[in-house]
Write a structure and sequence with these properties.
heterodimer; B: two-stranded antiparallel sheet; 12 helices; 69% helix
Chain lengths: 319, 314
């Protein structure tokens, strides 16, 4: 067990953090908005934590960083991300579908280039030696697991609240929702801000976990990966993104571990270690082909509850 | 800024912009027919550059499965460029069969196609790394120029305007590709069929057009121009490793949105605007220019410079 935690502690914490990032992309999607801005806010939150811990609350080398300060950093990151999300979201959410996705990609790239040029974010080098609030990376689970459970609970309750129903109405038909008195702009921006806040808080915690933060955190690739979590897990329920994120973020390590199994041909072992991202990409592609609705579909719940064949899935919108 | 420097920068900008344009045409061709952005296009672009390198009979570096290997044939640069483009086109066809067709047949959510094409792009980029390592490669300039001088003076001897020959080659090659493409689409039977499928797939198939074959052909063309663009960029900078298409791919998206999604003249205008803007921007902010322009154009005119506004039907 000791050895397992030493080897995989970091991975387990990362899985919980990635699951929250998936939820942060899922929140705007609940209101029918495909936003890929999550990595931008994640990077922003990470820089908030990194800059604050290196400049404001400085601790001596080797000393543990006080945990309450981490929470303060997360709060600051949340407020900042909410503000930026309002500024970006109000104009951008007039766009639909692929246009909104592209505008949010542009946002992610602009954040990256700005961070590359500002002295306070360490430019291309980034920020090193971010102090640790815990002795081992596995201990971060004390914060990340309750945070994940809270976010899941929040989204679960949200779906059953007035706001969540407004999101669902927007997702199904924006025009009809507006006709029924649901303000599209208000709820779309709300969903976008919620996602941004969650991503910023995850970034703040992850900056401590990783010990270093730079512009390679939160790129376009990350946006696509998070989208893959949501699509492969299933984009219709809140459990889908969580499961998808956990499976996909663990997959490269599982492949690496599989390469160590005895009795494998050397070629396969080499493919599993050096070429594991090849298999990763192929599995993502195959996942969409074999599970077009994602691993977890609303039908799955319905079937359990009703013990009868669920109504046929809603027809996919024809182009 | 004096005139000479301005003209030099302008020519650099046009050469960059033309490459953006022909690369973005690959996106636009597929988008105009399927209404989907092919995110594997940047991987095809990258592989096109590597194909050309291999076909010139050049040896790989020290890493990867193919370390120190080379092909037994040594094609001249132009032949390698064209053949590399054709191979990239065939690869795009294979991608269509693997990632696009199965989902299209189920009329799945376009988002799924986005993810599946990206999955294949990740796989392709890592296959390159697995085979030939992550180091940079460049085409030897003597063999590319084959006797041409490395730079050309476009003005008089007293007031020189010196341009690297490579830039001129890129501009000419891009113009030729563009002209051929426009000719193909506007003046041939298959081009007419492509336009029909882009207009309305169902009606086109009712009129006896084999839409499946037209889609395959479109992917081939898209891969062909993408692969050639990859080689041309590899020529003007270097092939900086398996990921060199990714940032280019993102800028290609900015280009097509700027010009108007699915609009061929739009891709050219968008490419030139972004190419020239980047050349004149301060180098540290160069990479942000395309995205700031993209963001602004989306807010001000989401249909792009040359696009037509689509009225959402209820």
């Amino acid at each position: 067990m000791e050895g397992f935690i030493a080897t995989y502690g970091f991975l387990i914490v990362t899985m919980t953090l990635q699951a929250m990032l998936a939820l942060s992309l899922y929140l705007p999607l609940m209101a029918g908005q495909l936003s890929l801005a999550t990595p931008g806010f994640y990077a922003l939150g990470g820089f908030v934590a990194a800059v604050m811990s290196k400049n404001i609350f400085v601790v001596a080398n080797g000393e543990l960083y006080p945990l309450p300060v981490v929470f303060v950093e997360m709060a600051v990151a949340a407020v900042l991300c909410a503000g930026v999300a309002l500024l970006v979201g109000l104009p951008a959410l007039r766009l639909r579908g692929i246009y909104l996705a592209l505008a949010t990609i542009a946002f992610v790239e602009v954040v990256r280039v700005v961070a590359l040029n500002l002295p306070i974010t360490g430019q291309a080098v980034g920020i090193f030696g971010i102090p640790q609030p815990f002795r081992s990376s596995f201990d971060y689970l004390i914060v990340s697991l309750p945070m994940l459970l809270l976010s899941i609970f929040f989204v679960y309750r949200l779906e059953r609240s007035r706001v969540g129903r407004a999101f669902a109405a927007l997702r199904e038909d924006e025009l009809a929702a507006a006709a029924m008195g649901v303000s599209p702009t208000r709820y779309k921006v709300l969903a976008f801000v919620m996602g941004a806040v969650l991503a910023g808080m995850v970034g703040a915690l992850n900056a401590h976990l990783l010990n270093t933060w730079n512009t390679r955190q939160g790129t376009f690739d990350a946006a696509i990966l998070i989208l893959a979590y949501v699509i492969i897990g299933g984009s219709r329920t809140f459990l889908g993104p969580v499961l998808g994120a956990m499976l996909l973020s663990a997959l490269p390590e599982v492949l690496r571990a599989a390469a160590g199994l005895p009795g494998l041909a050397p070629f396969i072992a080499q493919l599993l270690t050096d070429g594991r991202l090849i298999l990763y990409g192929l599995l993502i592609a195959l996942g969409t082909l074999f599970f077009p609705q994602g691993l977890i579909t609303p039908d799955l719940f319905r079937r359990r509850r009703a013990r009868r064949k669920a109504a046929p899935a809603a027809p996919v919108e024809a182009a | 800024m004096n005139t000479t420097l301005f003209l030099q920068q302008m020519i650099n900008g046009v050469s960059l912009g033309m490459v953006y344009a022909i690369f973005a045409l690959g996106y636009t061709l597929v988008f105009s027919i399927l209404g989907i952005i092919n995110f594997a296009h940047s991987a095809v672009f990258t592989i096109g550059a590597y194909f050309t390198y291999a076909l010139m009979g050049l040896a790989w570096g020290f890493n990867g499965l193919l370390a120190q290997q080379k092909l037994p044939l040594e094609l001249p640069f132009v032949a390698a460029l064209l053949l590399g483009g054709v191979l990239a086109g065939l690869l795009a066809v294979a991608l269509e069969r693997l990632a696009f067709k199965p989902l299209r047949e189920r009329s799945a959510d376009p988002l799924l196609t986005l993810v599946s094409s990206l999955g294949l792009a990740v796989a392709l980029v890592n296959i390159i790394q697995f085979l030939v390592g992550a180091e940079a490669y460049s085409y030897p300039s003597q063999r590319v120029l084959s006797g041409l001088p490395p730079s050309i003076n476009l003005a008089t001897a007293e007031a020189p305007l010196i341009i690297p020959t490579v830039r001129v080659i890129i501009i000419i090659a891009s113009l030729v590709i563009l002209a051929l493409l426009v000719l193909l689409i506007n003046a041939t039977k298959v081009g007419k069929a492509m336009r029909a499928v882009a207009e309305d797939t169902t009606t086109a198939s009712l009129l006896g057009i084999n839409t499946d074959r037209i889609i395959l052909f479109t992917f081939f063309l898209s891969g062909l121009v993408g692969g050639i663009a990859g080689t041309l960029v590899g020529l003007s900078v270097t092939i900086t490793g398996p990921y060199f298409g990714i940032s280019f791919g993102l800028k290609g998206l900015a280009v097509i949105v700027l010009g108007g999604l699915g609009n061929i003249p739009g891709a050219v205008v968008g490419g030139l605007v972004i190419g020239i803007a980047e050349t004149f921007a301060p180098s540290s902010l160069k990479d942000a220019v395309a995205f700031v322009i993209l963001f602004l154009i989306l807010l001000a005119r989401p249909q792009g410079l040359l696009g037509k506004a689509i009225i959402q039907k209820v």
